[in-house]
Amino acid sequence: MKTISIFGATGSVGRNTLEVIRESRKKFKVVGLSCQKNISLLEAYVKEFSPEFVSISDRESAKEFLDLAVGKRVDVFSGEEGLLKMAQKRADIYIMAITGFSSLLPTLEIIKAGGVIGLASKEALVVAGKLLIKESKKKGAKILPLDSEPNALFQALSNTSRKVEKVYLTGSGGSLYKKKGRVTYQKVLSHPVWKMGRKITVDSADLINKGFEVIETSYLFSLPPEKIEVLIHPEVIIHAIVQFSDGFSFAVCASPDMKFPINYVLNYPEDGPPLFHSLNWFSLSSLTFKKIRENRFPCLSLARESLNTGGTMPAVLNGANDISVQAFLDKKLSFYGIPEVIKEVVKRHKLIPSPSLSEILKASKWAEEEARRLIK
């Protein structure tokens, strides 16, 4: 039986992970759960899965949880240090599904211990990819990508020595694809395919999420940026394509459901059980693809530029984006203001080419503060 610790248990990836575990109760044991402040859902999960410990980032929510009877049956950690304590607890697989920069330090803690991590929080790799990959090789840790597109690439590139010509990450186009007229708050937050949190839905609408995946792919698979392309694929059936130098291309296909890559990661290196519906190829009338004109999507271009620049620039990109998206969600910044703020913050940053962890943390904090000043 594998022991599982889930960071971000009440979010979309966390909920899907627990749904997969429900279907294989004899294979998995949940030992740890974390959340930001959704303690009502966390309480339900504690009663159902009986973890040994939980971590609640919001301290007031942690106090409230401790006042509940359920809080007496588990060890309760709180704040950012609570996530680190949870990362230090032994588990066979750690699912990292925390949104944003706060995933970095617990991810690094798990890697330093040589753990196996199912990584959905791409921001950790975006801001400190070189550091995390170097440390994982040194400590023998395993990073298994959980996002559908990098996960598909992982499957296609595992156990092969063939020369890669190019890889293609596919995307639905986000909530604004094919929608006409004025861009509204409601349109941006209405994704046509995936049921996700609000922040990543905005990131998908302006395609910076694909930019983050380009950065993640480059670090995970040691690929230069020019070998990574993004394709619009509205049907969301093919999640990634690998084109080899001998002319063959491998495409990894599945229904658009996060439970597929989660099932793969939880059971790796063995095959997962057939818990969910397979594709019905006879029901598919067509599969379409369109090349993205990146000059129309400044956030995607900014992500590529930050990868090419390297150093502290990806951390600055991510920090500025976090604050800009939150300002949009709070209705303090327009949708088109997001790339404008990011671009200006990136322009003002004094690059550190080979940063330490502390310099990455400082650069991220500086970017957040600079973005707040610009928005204000």
Q: What's the helical proportion of residues?
A: 40-55%
Gap between N and C termini: 52 Å
CATH level-four homologous superfamily name of the largest domain:
NAD(P)-binding Rossmann-like Domain
Oligomer designation: single chain
Top CATH class of the largest domain: Alpha Beta
Give average pLDDT, whole number.
Answer: 92
Number of helices: 15
Tell me the number of structural domains: 3
Which range does the strand content fall in? 15-25%
Structural class: alpha/beta
What is this structure's SSE topology?
Blueprint: E1 2-7, H1 12-22, E2 28-35, H2 39-49, E3 53-56, H3 59-67, E4 75-78, H4 79-88, E5 93-96, H5 104-112, E6 116-119, H6 122-139, E7 142-145, H7 148-157, E8 164-171, H8 185-188, H9 198-205, H10 208-221, E9 228-232, E10 238-244, E11 249-253, H11 259-267, E12 290-291, H12 298-309, H13 313-329, H14 337-348, H15 357-375
Parallel strand pairs: 1-2, 1-5, 2-3, 3-4, 5-6, 6-7, 8-9
Antiparallel strand pairs: 8-10, 9-12, 10-11
Helix pairs in contact: 4-5, 5-6, 6-10, 6-13, 7-10, 9-13, 10-12, 12-14, 13-14, 13-15, 14-15
Walk me through this protein's architecture.
By secondary structure, this protein is an alpha/beta fold. It has 3 domains: 2-145, 3-Layer(aba) Sandwich (Rossmann fold), CATH 3.40.50; 149-257 and 278-299, no CATH class; 310-376, Orthogonal Bundle (Rna Polymerase Sigma Factor, Chain: A), CATH 1.10.1740.10. It is 46% helix and 16% strand. The protein has helices at residues 12-22, 39-49, 59-67, 79-88, 104-112, 122-139, 148-157, 185-188, 198-205, 208-221, 259-267, 298-309, 313-329, 337-348, 357-375, and strands at residues 2-7, 28-35, 53-56, 75-78, 93-96, 116-119, 142-145, 164-171, 228-232, 238-244, 249-253, 290-291. The strands form 2 sheets. The protein has a 7-stranded parallel beta sheet with strand order 4-3-2-1-5-6-7, sandwiched between helices. The protein has a 5-stranded mixed beta sheet with strand order 11-10-8-9-12, covered by helices on one side. It is globular and about 55 Å long.
